[in-house]
Amino acid sequence: MDASPQSTIPQRGREARISPRLRQVQILERAEQFGFWWQSRRQVARRLGVPDSSFRYCLRTHDYRCQESRGPAALVRFFETPEGLAFLHRLLAAVHLVFVQANDCGLRNVGWFLRLSGLDEFLPGSYGAQQAFARQMETLLAEYGREEDQRLAAQMPPREISLCEDETFHPQICLVAIEPVSNFLLLEQYAPHRDTATWTQCLDERLAGWSVTVCQVTSDEAKALIAHAEQALGAHHSPDLFHVQQDLVQATSLALAGQTARAHQAVAEAQQVTAQRLAELTACQEQCPQSTQGSELQRQVAQATAAEAELQQRLAACQQRHQQATEARHRLSRAYHPIDLETGRPREAEEVGQLLKQNLDQLDEIAAAAGLSASARQKLSKARRVLPAMQRTIAFFWTTVAARLASWALPATVTKWMREELIPGLYLAIAADKASTAAERHRLRARAEEVLARARSPDGPWGSLNDHERADLEAKARQCAELFQRSSSCVEGRNGQLSLRHHGLHRLTPRKLGALKVIHNYLVERRDGSTAAVRFFGSRPQPLFAWLLARLPLPARPYQSHRKA
User: Fold this and answer.
1) Which class for 137: exposed (0-12), middle (13-18), buried (19 or more C-beta within 10 A)?
2) What is the pLDDT of residue 544?
3) Given this model, what pLDDT does residue 386 score?
4) Residues in the chain where the model's pLDDT stays below 50
5) Which residues neighbour 465 within 8 Å (Cβ) at sequence distance 6 or greater?
6) pTM, whole model, 2 decimals?
7) How many helices and strands in the chain, by DSSP H and E?
8) For residue 552, what are the CA distances in angstroms to 97, 240, 258, 548?
9) How far apart (Å, rounded) are the C-alpha atoms in residues 398 and 384?
10) What per-residue string of b and e applies to 400-420 under the rule 16 or more CB within 10 Å gives b?
11) Does residue 525 contact residue 531 with C-beta atoms inside 8 Å?
């Protein structure tokens, strides 16, 4: 006996929930099982439980596809099966997710791809069809993000986090907040204002019901962001080193480089004059050895040589000042760490503050010696005003670490060991991953391995712990090491990505912005295969692509008039 047609073919009461194209291929698949070629069409339709006219329409459509197709008949037959339609559905969804949503290749390029591949015979390639599919995917991406955020947040244990915050403009104001350790986008939305009240309202709505406490905010020196961090959130505000370095570069690097370039030009011109005077003297001595003009030419050569030597000294001074300023800026950056990057020992706030002041004092001396403009001196003064906040951030780090160590009720020897060896070693490993050059990364990793080798020596507290205690203390030490956030570079990078997308699309709708946030959090993976959501929540979400496939509509048949001969 044949299986009931209800098992594969939807009945009329369910037709509103199934694609007409899927219904057609299911009808044909069941009809082939019946062997309809030796039975009457009406008899087969009755056995299928469908109207005779519907069955005949399916046959005409199938025959037309097979006769008019440019591709092999076997390929056409495959795409006229449920499995073939599922493959087309998966292909179109993958193309839109990867190329349209994640990389903004453009909908017209999708239609171009379908035409070149010959898939426009089976998938609609028009701009309108692709636009509708893209709109549905963006809506579903935002829905997925809301569902998974709430589901995963409900399972997440209470935790303290840091935030990096900034605004960008498209030209609408877009508020962006990222948790820097996991790179999870907590906030990315358009807002009418960027004042303290707006920031607080948006973040409160985002974190409603979450077991999350913001203990630190890293941002530029915008008053609204500082007030939002300190007054609304009750968190510590950490100044952004990126903006401090930007002020220092604008104050010294460009001006000193310009002085050096002009000094180079002056030396080159002086060398030409000296060479010309020497040529004149040589010619005079060869052609008119008895001429009294020789003494005058010798005096001119001596003057040109002296002028060239003086300009050479000026060039050397300019080069030295430029080099010293660059080194001072680099030393300031290396000094702004709670751990000494050279020795791996902890550094207190007073020591860090003194090092920062020394390097900025040297930049002031260089600016005075170079005679830099008043504008450059103002930028140096602006950077100096941030130094107390940078020192307070180091103090906040060690105060918070001490509070956490005390709350864990560890023995005194273990507490000292974690503060002086385990936390510094893990901090150096984290700093190595962020270093800008390969040489610096290798150096810091070697130093981190050296410090961690001491920390994990069996002769110390490490040797008295079991495997579970070691893993637990190392995880806690890593949390402490990740507490120090001195830059909002993750937000600056995200703002740059959004600017590029806005430039290409001319407009980012709130729906598109929400889809981009979900892709950033749930789709983009690091080398270890983890997404930002996995790192932030600590548990895996539902597979995004499978979730989309289950909800995206099956593709309709392309219009025959759109197919190319």
Assistant:
1) buried
2) 95
3) 93
4) 1-17, 64, 561-565
5) 473
6) 0.82
7) 23, 5
8) 12, 43, 59, 6
9) 23
10) bbeebbeeeebeeebbebbbb
11) yes
State the residue for tokens 């008053």: 223
Q: What are the structure tokens assigned to 488, written together?
A: 């909002």
Q: Are 228 and 217 in contact (CB under 8 A)?
A: yes
Q: Determine the 3-state secondary structure of 408 from DSSP.
A: coil
Closest Cα to residue 162, out of 386, 429, 459, 491?
491
pLDDT attached to residue 508:
86
Quote the pLDDT of residue 334: 93
First to last CA, the chain: 44
Q: What is the pLDDT of residue 361?
A: 94
| Token pair belonging to 516 | 């981009």
Contact (CB, 8 A) for 193 and 173: yes
Beta carbons of 191 and 204 less than 8 angstroms apart: no
Hey, what amino acid is at 519?
I
CB 163 within 8 A of CB 218: yes
SS3 (DSSP) at 233: coil
Can you read off the two tokens belonging to residue 387? 């130094």
Residue 221 structure tokens: 């020196």
SS3 letters across 235-287: CEEEECHHHHHHHHHHHHHHHHHHHHHHHHHHHHHHHHHHHHHHHHHHHHHHH
Query: What tokens appear for 442 in the block?
Result: 């290798």
**Which class for 157: exposed (0-12), middle (13-18), buried (19 or more C-beta within 10 A)?**
exposed
Find tokens 């000193």 and name the residue. 256
Q: What is the DSSP string of 126-178?
A: SHHHHHHHHHHHHHHHHHHHHHHHHHHHHHSPPEEEEEEEEEEESSSEEEEEE
